[in-house]
Design a protein that fits this description.
about 170 residues, 3 domains, 9 helices
């Protein structure tokens, strides 16, 4: 583990090397969670570091393999999918976290899964909460839930149609 100084980093700290101060700030940010280059660039810029200092620090962090947007995207996709999130929501989260659109598309393609199956699994887990409700209210609640989880309208409609038609779960014996 790389030691991190615990003082508050200020870019104009009386003659201190701005590269060192920016690196300390970046390492402190990375000690909490993995971050994208875009996130680190924004945060260091907010702290008042020049674009040249930020670029230098990001280059050094890439060289040390402490930041890697592709790896971050892959990890986040895996965690979010295990958590029952749909691809639309995962894509928004990655872009919000500063991962470039190209890297998001590439990572999503690498980890292509059947989103309809994931929507079905997510709906199955949620279905117990709508027992006892009339069909229309249950449909609206489950539809809204799947959309909020980031599933597309097609996957959501397919899963709901399957659920309310009483079709058996795929792979189940008749």
């Amino acid at each position: 583990m790389i030691p991190i100084s615990h003082h508050t980093a200020k870019p104009s700290a009386g003659g201190a090397d701005p590269n060192r101060t920016a690196m300390d700030s970046a390492l402190k940010l990375l000690s909490f969670r993995a971050r994208s280059e875009g996130e680190l660039s924004d945060r260091l810029g907010q702290k008042g570091f020049s674009a040249e200092v930020v670029a230098s620090v990001l280059a050094r962090l890439r060289e040390l393999e402490l930041i890697n947007d592709k790896s971050l995207a892959r990890d986040l996709i895996e965690v979010q999918r295990r958590g029952g999130r749909g691809d639309h929501r995962i894509r928004r989260e990655l872009i919000k976290r500063g991962v470039s659109g190209g890297e998001v598309t590439e990572a999503m393609a690498e980890h292509a899964e059947n989103e309809s199956d994931r929507a079905w699994d997510c709906l199955q887990k949620r279905a117990s909460r709508v027992k006892g409700l009339d069909r229309d209210r249950a449909y609206r609640r489950l539809h809204g839930y799947l959309i909020r989880q980031g599933f597309g309208i097609d996957e959501t409609s397919r899963a709901l149609r399957r659920f309310f038609s009483g079709e058996p779960e795929e792979g189940a014996e008749p």
